[in-house]
Amino acid sequence: MTGLARSLAASALEAAIPLGALDWRGIEREIDAYGCAVAAKLIARETCRELQALYPNDALFRSRIAMAAHGFGRGEYKYFAEPLPDLIVALRRGFYPRLAPIADRWNAAMGGSVRYPSEHEAFRARCRAAGQSRPTPLLLRYGPGDYNCLHQDVYGEHLFPLQVAILLSEPGGDFTGGAFVLTEQRPRMQSRAEVVSLGQGDGVIFAVRERPVQGARGAYRVNLRHGVSRIKSGERFTLGIIFHDAA
Predict the structure, then answer these.
(1) Is 173 helix (H, G, I), strand (E, B) or coil?
(2) Fewer CB within 10 Å: C terminus or N terminus of the chain?
(3) 186: buried, middle or exposed (CB in 10 Å: 19+, 13-18, 0-12)?
């Protein structure tokens, strides 16, 4: 790991607001109602800039994806390589045990048998045993005219049903446009869109693929996809925290 990444790890962990300070009851209510919730001011402004500055350093990443080449939209992203920066490890380990009970409750409501271990490393071991050993945290970069098509981040048999995206750029300063969008398709109904407003350093916690919705005859599952609308000007960076690894 480069000197820049080592200094990031030390400063970022000190600057980050402890996840325990978040209103987790409120977050859980929002996720249950809408499939997403905002976790404000996760990362300090200075740390956001340091994370953006890592993007050109290919030694820190295992692969680069140009979205247009795959029909994913326009823009690009890079998956971090092992060893992950300490901040990203801390975010994964910190978020996971708070989200695992929600994931278990959702799976039970939808009639699924999968339950999740209480610690992230135990879940990663489950992924590795199934051949999913490549880390999935990533940095995304968008420029003018770029966008991310609606999609789901599914990388193999084992999937954790919630993930986090943290905006590293300043809306209205670094870029315009580029809203986070979550769509939900309920059976025999038209799709519903949720547009999430984020400030620099804010995160959105959201459903990866599906979630339960309570109906008149009990809970039923709905399908979700997420994306980013067109960047009108400037440059937008995002840190993606996905809890399952890739095959």
Answers:
(1) coil
(2) C
(3) middle
Print the domain residue range for 7.
3-241
Asked whether 31 and 162 are in contact (CB, 8 A), the reply is yes
Closest to 209 (Cα-Cα) out of 130, 154, 145? 154
**Burial of 106 from C-beta contacts in 10 A (0-12 / 13-18 / 19+):** buried
Instruction: Decide if 201 is inside a domain.
Output: yes
Q: Which two tokens stand for residue 116?
A: 């999740």
Reduced to 3 states (helix: H, G, I; strand: E, B; else coil), residue 243 is coil
- Angle (CA) 33-35-36 rounded to 5° is 105
Q: What CATH number should be reported for the domain holding residue 102?
A: 2.60.120.620
pLDDT tens for residues 118-159? 999 999 999 999 999 999 999 999 999 999 999 999 999 999
Residue of 242, 52, 32 lying closest to 158 (CA atoms): 242
Collect all residues with Cβ–Cβ distance below 8 Å to 180 and sequence separation of at least 6: 165, 167, 195, 196, 198, 204, 226, 227, 228
**CA dist., res. 86 & res. 70, Å (int):** 31
Decide: pTM greater than 0.85.
yes
pLDDT per position as a tens digit, 213-229: 988 888 899 999 999 99
The verdict on residue 247 lying in a domain is: no
| pLDDT for position 189 | 82
